[in-house]
Amino acid sequence: MQFLSVNADCFLIELSSLEETLALYSKLQNAQLKGVKDLIPAAKTILVFFNEIETQFQALTSVISTFEIGSSLERNAQEVIIPIHYNGEDLAQVAALQGLSVADVILKHQQSVWNVAFIGFAPGFAYMSSPDHPFTDIPRLKVPRKKIPAGSLGLAGKYSGIYPKDSPGGWQLIGTTTEKMWDLERQNPALLLPGMTVHFEDVTNFPVSVSVPKQIIPTEKPSVEPVFKITAPSLQMLIQDEGRFNQTNIGVGTAGAMDLAAMHSANRIVGNPIQTAVIEVLNGGLKAKMQGSAVIAVTGARSNICVKFADGQNADFDSYQAIALDEGDEFQIQPPTAGLRNYLSIRGGFDLQPVLNSYSFDSLAVLGPEPLKVGDVLYQGQVATSNISLYETAKTNLPMVGDTVELDIVMGPRTDWFDPDSIEKLCQQTWLVTNESNRVGLRLSGLSPLSRKITHELESEGTCIGALQIPPSGQPVLFMNDHPLTGGYPVIASVAKHHWDLVAQIPAGCHIKFNKIEEFKKIENGYEH
Question: Where's the Carboxyltransferase domain (predicted)?
Fold first, then answer.
């Protein structure tokens, strides 16, 4: 067991096998160590998140290193039978790779017992391993498919997995099922959870059953008042709150407002609790017509708010102030002169329906309230309000296109996978923020790509917000709020938490200069290397 630094509030535990990983994961869940907030198990690692006020990296590693784990695991008693039509387009290729007939591949797969090891890649995507070891490691496709249909059964490495929704992917497809891996209408949206045992039933020669959609009877909307109607769009208009917590066991990440400080300010300015959901607006442009009276605020990127009052008068307002509007008034958030994302709040909040205890939209998982569009009407919420804050101020360091932004980084967990020149290069050169950047991550481009000294494939492991993942191109991807829970490329370092809000405001065309504030830490047998 060894411990690798990741960020100020998380670290990675590396083990020698999947069995050890699952055994330790079970012990950690039962131990409920003080300060531990979340655990993300993967193939041979567990990512541990903790509360920095309640505990520290050294204290936790000292306790966890005393655990005797072995490789025995008390499994979830629940068993699930999944019917499979073994008709996948890669079935013959898998058979050839294994030196088996197609019939033997099907027989070995469906007669083996499969255990859910962990959830990753997408909500409800279960990585299943078999103690029977029916196959040698199966390589992923060299060129991943752009779209794999929901319900497709695939093999990769030593795992089986069923795609819960249409998505790109590189697993070898051997079959399909009509079972829903992910369904928000169920009490437990994910059909498969870590620790469950899965049996596959061969129904290839049975007709595919067609499910009849349930009739949805519309419920009568409670008596709420419309507050404004969107009449012109921004590039992206998303409902966001502080995020979706404690859902990693079903493969769901945090999401949430990318600039939390700006979101909190927007709520304080109108007298809402700071966690109240707001609208995150990308690059300005949102225009709306008031359907009633309200007090709004706009924070985040430096933008003017143009108001056309119902009586024909016009006025411009700065951000970071309360603006009182009446029915018939129109307002528009102008494109930022610095920064990238605005946060729009309304006194009393918006009337919304939560999804998994959050109002945030997750762009990777496609989860939460749908992105807003022209014609949408927002309704007045019933959030308890208090006094309006008069002392909120805009950030003074908001970046503009062409600026160089300095970001602090913590080294790890895979710093030692890179050659010394690349580790130096990470901080010596600047990195361009490309147009291929979004809420999942910022794609960066540098003059000299980074190169690895350890070149074998990394098994999937948990990642955090701010992670600098290095794909084969050597050009970093800076993971942000909607990043996948697990990743298969090594993370050389992570942006420190105190700079996450700043990352949210970096437009494409800026350069980033990384500043190392903590060295890579590896603790093994109680000693730091």
Answer: 1-192, 249-526
Name the domain boundary from 202, 237, 272: 202
Side by side, which strands form the sheet with 226-232? 314-318, 304-308, 330-333, 287-290, 226-232, 377-379
pLDDT digits (tens, 9 = 90+) for 499-516: 999 999 999 999 999 999
Residues 520 and 437 in one domain: yes
254 and 118 in a common domain: no
Residue 521 shares a structural domain with residue 425: yes
Tokens 């970096």, residue located: 506
Same-domain status, 94 and 176: yes
Q: Is 219 part of a structural domain of the chain?
A: no
Q: Tell me, what CATH number does 85's domain have?
A: 2.40.100.10
Cβ–Cβ contacts within 10 Å for residue 417, how many? 19
Three-class DSSP category at 346: strand
Residue 225, pLDDT > 80, answer yes
Residue 480 has pLDDT above 70, yes or no: yes
**CA–centroid distance for 497 within its chain:** 16
> Which of the listed ranges 29-43, 184-198, 205-219, 256-270 does the model predict with the highest average pLDDT?
256-270
pLDDT category of residue 442 using cuts at 50, 70 and 90: very high
C-alpha span between 440 and 479 (Å, rounded): 6
Q: Does 368 fall in a domain?
A: yes
Place of tokens 């109108």: 270
Structure tokens at 207: 């007709």
Length of the chain: 529
Angle between helices 102-111 and 91-98 (to 10 degrees): 90
Q: What is the pLDDT of residues 25-49, one digit of tens each?
A: 989 988 999 999 999 999 999 999 9
Q: Is residue 316 part of a domain?
A: yes
Residues 35 and 104 in one domain: no
Which of 178, 168, 170 lies closest to 87 in space, CA to CA? 178
- 89/31 same-domain check: no
Assess whether 160 and 230 both reside in one domain: no
Cα 158-189-360 angle, rounded to 5 deg? 105
Kind and range of the H or E run holding 395: none
Count of domains for the chain: 4
User: Cβ neighbours of residue 197 under 8 Å, at least 6 residues apart?
Assistant: 75, 76, 78, 79, 80, 113, 114, 115, 116
Token pair 């998303």 in the structure block, residue: 238
Query: The domain containing residue 115 runs over which residues?
Result: 79-202
264 & 304 share domain? yes
Q: Of 314, 345, 379, which one is at a domain's C-terminal end?
A: 379
Phi, psi (rounded to 5 degrees) for 428? -85, -35
> Is 393 contained in some domain?
no
Q: Does pLDDT of 127 surpass 50?
A: yes
Structure tokens at 518: 């903590």
Tokens at residue 89, please?
């387009």
